[in-house]
Amino acid sequence: MTSTPPPVSPTTAAFHVQAVLSFAVSLSAVAVAVIFLPADGWVRAFLGLGILYVTTSAFTLAKTIRDRQDVSTVVTRVDQARMDKLLAEHDPFAVR
């Protein structure tokens, strides 16, 4: 019976750190810009809530895309496991 190797993560640890740092720097820069914006407090509060909404919706979108990709990966792996089982159990020289 052949077994398929476990899927390899397409990202490295360095790429993950870079993505996290990039997100933190960009969110911090926008937050500082809104805080020091020469405008009334309600305008800064409105922009701050907008930043939070965009951030949470971006996380939700990324999670949804990841979940959809994971579902297709699991279905593919289940189909592959069924095919491997059928091939392993098949004996072309069996007399029936």
Automatic annotation (TrEMBL):
Coiled coil: none annotated. It comes from the Bacteria. Keywords: Membrane, Transmembrane, Transmembrane helix. InterPro entries: YiaA-like, YiaAB. Residues 15-67 form the YiaAB two helix domain. The chain crosses the membrane at residues 12-36, 42-62. Pfam families: YiaAB (PF05360). This is YiaAB two helix domain-containing protein. It comes from Pseudonocardia oceani.
